[in-house]
């Protein structure tokens, strides 16, 4: 999971090695202009065939992996033509996802070729081949070339599955359903079988029971809530809300000592709770008032969970004015309602009101939605309302969408390829992915209309807590990135409607508090990233029982007992906190990757059953006994620097080890390393080791090491040319290569050395393949996150002269930082979790305010001595740093640091 944080920006690559050619003639559309469409596909015995058909003028190309389309034109007419190929990304329903991926125009004189390269993995593309007459009159030459992947078939997935709610009486016969109706990614409904984790024993016990099941054949969970109601009307009702109980007793003219029964509560038909409840939002007890017809819950100032109202089907009048309600889905069953007041709340959608056709009075003003189309069926019957449909804005999908923030609107316009004119709901409602990276967005108003979104990245903007409310309507969300914003707290049920959410990124904010109910509803969440905040209490994560990965480094957490229920965890990064007890992790036996560096841990015996562990980082603690690692036969990476370790025999049989850091301990004998021939990195300095002969047979194969090969003469192995007292050896540093001087020519084209970096730039700037990228374009970039899969060449960064924020973390690479010398406007630079040794290139970056160099191989920090504007500096995880004196003059100015002088 090392690149979980970055994976959402990474696109797969497919090697192109084979060309399949087919021919088509469109004489009926353009005279004397035959076309050849070439689709380049994967090589090998399993190379897919290109399947062509010509139904009604449409040509369909089906291929597993198509990455390039060529259109060759033979123009035999006397008139010169301009031809173009336009590629649009679409989903399986034909909805446009990314309006224009590329558009290349060529002069079709004689024989010409136009190409558009596209990257395709489990997706579909629609290609229009267009003809231009002197670039003015556009004519479609071929209708649509639909290119699908996955062997011509879309991988069918479940798009939506609603939870099941059932209410029965005590003793009634009931069997859990064997099937459930779901919405597939094709837009069609399907009835699929359910496999329940537990069965219903009986219905004799009154209460609310939860059942969890999975849809057979799909990695999708379904929940069923079963409420078993008592049939004994004389039974006393135990209230959860004492204030509500008192109000009802007063309504029934009962004294405080009286024990209310279900029979009593059935007598209540009207109830006013306006200005009551003292902010207590618990209205669960209202479910017993089954004969209620008139309910007033106005001016309570609460964010009510309206689920208890679901069964009050006799309600005809309901007042919820002046609260903080954002979800009204429980109201959809109240079909007898005639008067409903929802004004002054936080609604982003009124879809649940669509079937309340008996309404004659409806108030909706002062909410977060202006889409009143769900009232279409009864709008004309409303004799009292406080809203109007503006004909200029249209209705339903023709409605005009407004965005408060100009930068957000600009990004959306790029995504849908609409530079000007009104944005209509129909143009954005089916968008699946949206990336708004480093644009300084402050308001998310309007984004609540993008209800089809599944992946949303808002990295490096200026979003504050108050803006989270606009995300509550995005129920299809699977991946949400809010990293590097201005969040300070996460409120209760902030993401409750996102039941499909699998990854949530909250890194690099200023979060100090997460409400205990913040993650309610996220039962499918697998990856949670909350690194680089100021979090002390993680109680909120205890309900995330399906969590696979939790990244929480660089916080202030001391108690991890909330992790005890998270038995499915395979990856936890908890470095640089204040943890002393890791026993709560003992039940998560599937761990593969665990990082607890920079804490106060002394005992790791609870890890004894974690036989699947592949990567273990325990440096900078107080650990002396590492016997538990003996059973971790799959371990490839062990970092145990800066502890109190003497005995390393437990590592003797870990023959898969590739990286081993044991420096700065109390080790004398390294005989246990003799069989670890797969080691590529080994750190042993700052111990009491005199004899290194156990590693002599593979010493030359160790690419990164911090010691000379000294053999104890008394051991019979003789001596090498090394010194006898084993001084620490600094690995040779490759002389830095000075990058060529970049001439300031805004119109000059930039030829990228790293194609991956070029792709990222094009995405951020909205530039299509084929469009020239100039130095002037790159001067417009002020924030950038490098996301590489293979090529880690950063020489192209020398052109980003106006860059203020740069993230190069999590690559475990010894970057050559010379290109950064040019970036003198940098204020934020993240280089953590790499293998960097030399930081001399940073000495001229005098405007730096935040610098993260943690978890590298740095020993010399003298280049930092003149960076007097630094307010945040992280150096932990660099065991080679022994001398902090170069930064003594700036130390007291640091507001954030992870080291002491």
UniProtKB/TrEMBL annotation:
Region: Disordered, residue numbers: 713-740
Domain Bacterial Ig-like, residue spans: 161-217
One Pfam family of this chain: Big_4
Gene3D superfamilies named in the record: Ribonuclease Inhibitor (3.80.10.10)
Naturally occurring in which organism (per UniProt): Hathewaya proteolytica DSM 3090
Pro residues bias (residue ranges): 728-739
Protein name: Leucine Rich repeat-containing protein
Keywords per UniProt: Leucine-rich repeat, Membrane, Repeat, Transmembrane, Transmembrane helix
Matches recorded under InterPro entries: Big_4, Leu-rich_rpt, Leu-rich_rpt_4, Leu-rich_rpt_typical-subtyp, LRR_dom_sf, SDS22/Internalin_LRR
Membrane-spanning parts: 12-37
Listed PANTHER family: LEUCINE-RICH REPEAT AND IQ DOMAIN-CONTAINING PROTEIN 1-RELATED (PTHR46652), LEUCINE-RICH REPEAT-CONTAINING PROTEIN 9 (PTHR46652:SF3)
């Amino acid at each position: 999971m090392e690149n979980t944080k970055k994976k959402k920006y990474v696109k797969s690559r497919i090697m192109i090695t084979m060309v399949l050619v087919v021919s088509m003639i469109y004489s009926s559309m353009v005279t004397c202009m035959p076309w050849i469409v070439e689709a380049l596909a994967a090589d090998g015995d399993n190379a897919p065939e290109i399947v062509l058909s010509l139904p009604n003028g449409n040509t369909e190309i089906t291929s597993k992996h198509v990455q390039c389309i060529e259109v060759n034109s033979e123009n035999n007419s006397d008139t010169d033509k301009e031809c173009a190929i336009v590629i649009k990304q679409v989903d399986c329903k034909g909805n446009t996802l990314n309006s224009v991926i590329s558009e290349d125009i060529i002069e079709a004189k004689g024989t010409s070729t136009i190409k558009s390269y596209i990257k395709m993995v489990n997706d579909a593309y629609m290609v229009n081949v267009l003809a231009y007459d002197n670039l003015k009159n556009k004519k479609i030459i071929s209708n649509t070339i639909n290119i699908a992947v996955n062997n011509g078939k879309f991988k069918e997935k479940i798009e939506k599955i609603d939870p099941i709610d059932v209410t029965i009486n005590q003793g009634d016969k009931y069997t859990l359903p064997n099937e459930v109706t779901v919405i597939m990614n094709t837009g069609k409904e399907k009835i699929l079988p359910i496999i329940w984790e537990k069965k219903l024993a009986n219905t004799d016990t009154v209460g609310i029971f939860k059942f969890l099941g999975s849809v057979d054949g799909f990695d999708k969970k379904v929940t069923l809530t079963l409420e078993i109601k008592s049939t004994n009307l004389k039974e006393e009702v135990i209230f959860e809300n004492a204030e509500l109980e008192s109000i009802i007793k007063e309504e029934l003219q009962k004294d405080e000592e009286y024990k209310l029964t279900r029979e009593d509560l059935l007598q209540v038909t009207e109830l006013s709770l306006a200005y009551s409840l003292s902010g207590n939002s618990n209205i669960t007890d209202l479910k017993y008032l089954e004969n209620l017809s008139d309910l007033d819950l106005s001016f309570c100032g609460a964010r009510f969970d309206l689920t208890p109202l679901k069964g009050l089907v006799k309600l005809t009048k309901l007042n919820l004015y002046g609260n903080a309600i954002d979800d009204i889905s429980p109201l959809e069953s109240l079909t007898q309602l005639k008067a409903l007041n929802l004004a002054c709340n936080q609604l982003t959608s009124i879809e649940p009101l669509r079937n309340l056709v008996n309404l004659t009075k409806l108030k909706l003003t002062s909410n977060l939605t202006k889409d009143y189309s769900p009232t279409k069926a009864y709008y004309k019957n409303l004799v009292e309302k406080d809203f109007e449909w503006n004909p200029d804005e249209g209705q339903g999908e023709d409605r005009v969408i407004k965005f408060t923030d100009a930068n957000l609107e600009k990004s959306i316009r790029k995504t849908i390829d609409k530079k000007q004119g009104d944005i209509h709901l129909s143009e954005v409602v089916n968008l699946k992915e949206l990336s708004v990276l480093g644009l300084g967005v402050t308001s998310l108003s309007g984004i609540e209309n993008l209800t089809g979104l599944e992946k949303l990245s808002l990295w490096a903007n200026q979003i504050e807590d108050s803006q989270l409310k606009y995300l509550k309507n995005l129920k299809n969300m699977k991946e949400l990135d809010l990293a590097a914003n201005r969040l300070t707290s996460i409120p209760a049920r902030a993401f409750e409607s996102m039941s499909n959410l699998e990854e949530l990124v909250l890194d690099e904010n200023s979060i100090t508090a997460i409400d205990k109910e913040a993650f309610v509803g996220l039962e499918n969440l697998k990856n949670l990233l909350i690194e680089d905040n100021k979090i002390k209490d993680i109680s909120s994560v205890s309900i995330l029982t399906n969590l696979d990965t939790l990244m929480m480094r660089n916080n202030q957490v001391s108690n991890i007992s909330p992790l005890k229920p998270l038995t499915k965890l395979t990856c936890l990064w908890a470095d640089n906190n204040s943890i002393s007890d890791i026993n709560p992790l003992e039940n998560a036996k599937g761990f593969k990757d665990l990082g607890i560096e920079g804490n106060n841990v002394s005992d790791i015996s609870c890890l004894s059953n974690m036989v699947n562990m592949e990567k273990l980082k325990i440096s900078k603690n107080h650990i002396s006994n590492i016997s538990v690692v003996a059973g971790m036969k799959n371990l490839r990476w062990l970092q145990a620097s800066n502890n109190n370790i003497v005995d390393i025999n437990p590592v003797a049989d870990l023959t898969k080890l590739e990286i081993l850091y044991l420096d700065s301990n109390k080790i004398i004998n390294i005989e246990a390393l003799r069989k670890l021939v797969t080691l590529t990195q080994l750190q042993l300095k700052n111990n009491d080791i005199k004899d290194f002969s156990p590693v002599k047979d593979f010493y030359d194969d160790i690419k990164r090491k911090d010691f000379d090969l000294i053999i104890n003469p008394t051991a019979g192995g003789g001596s090498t040319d090394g010194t006898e007292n084993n001084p620490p050896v600094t690995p040779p540093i490759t002389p830095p290569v000075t990058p060529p001087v970049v001439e300031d020519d805004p119109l000059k084209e930039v030829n990228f050395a790293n194609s991956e970096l070029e792709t990222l730039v094009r995405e951020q700037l909205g530039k299509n393949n084929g469009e020239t990228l100039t130095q002037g374009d790159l001067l417009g970039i002020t924030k950038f996150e490098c996301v590489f899969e293979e090529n880690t060449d950063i020489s192209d960064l020398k052109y980003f002269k106006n860059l203020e924020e740069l993230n190069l973390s999590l690559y475990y690479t010894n970057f050559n930082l010379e290109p950064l010398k040019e970036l003198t406007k940098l204020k934020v630079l993240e280089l953590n979790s790499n293998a960097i040794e030399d930081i001399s290139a940073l000495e001229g970056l005098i405007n730096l305010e935040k610098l993260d160099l943690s978890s590298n191989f740095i020993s010399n920090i003298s280049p930092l001595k003149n960076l007097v504007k630094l307010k945040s500096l992280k150096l932990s995880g660099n065991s080679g740093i022994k001398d902090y004196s170069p930064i003594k003059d700036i130390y007291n100015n640091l507001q954030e640091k992870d080291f002491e002088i």
